[in-house]
Amino acid sequence: QVRVVESGGGLVQIGGSLRLSCAASGHTSTPYVMKWFRLAPGKDREFVASSMFSGNPYVADSLKGRFTMSEDAAQNTIYLNMDNLKPEDTAVYYCNVDNIYWGQGTQVTVSS
Questions:
Q1: Distances in whole angstroms, Cα of residue 56 to Cα of each of 17, 33, 68, 83
Q2: Residue 51: per-residue pLDDT
Q3: Rg of the Cα trace of the chain?
Q4: Category of 23 on φ-ψ map: left (φ > 0), alpha (ψ -120 to 50) or beta
Q5: Is the separation of the CB atoms in 85 and 112 below 8 Å?
Q6: Which tens digit of pLDDT belongs to each residue from 51-109?
Q7: Which residues pair with 71 in a beta bridge?
Q8: Which of 14, 45, 56, 71 is deepest in the core (most CB within 10 A)?
Q9: Residue 61's closest CA among 44, 76, 46, 79?
Q10: What's the rounded Cα separation, in Å, for the pair 92 and 8?
């Protein structure tokens, strides 16, 4: 059974930074793809970034310039670095592995 664990969320002021981590365990090999999504109150789930452990992770166009993603295939872990955070970034951030497995989510709150 694959287990997905996110961490790193919290409360941050406008313009601040956070780094989220997502680790997949129980996988027999490196996951095919790992993705970040976010869900804000009253909004649809939004794609944030994805990694196929190819050295070229992808970040949604609307978030490029503020969000970057890195990957560690040896640890089956991806990271989401978020800079210049805005109130509209407030959401629960979820990690998905292989389009099948979900983590429990980590809350990010951006406040003035």
A1: 22, 12, 11, 19
A2: 94
A3: 13
A4: beta
A5: no
A6: 999 889 999 999 999 999 999 999 999 999 999 999 999 999 999 999 999 999 999 99
A7: 78
A8: 71
A9: 46
A10: 11
For tokens 């429990």, the residue is: 104
Contact 65, 82 (CB under 8 A): no
Strand-pairing partners, residue 67, are 64, 82
Length of the chain: 112
Segments of 8-105 assigned E as strands: 10-13, 18-25, 34-39, 46-51, 58-59, 67-72, 77-82, 91-97, 101-102
Q: Which two tokens stand for residue 75?
A: 């640890």
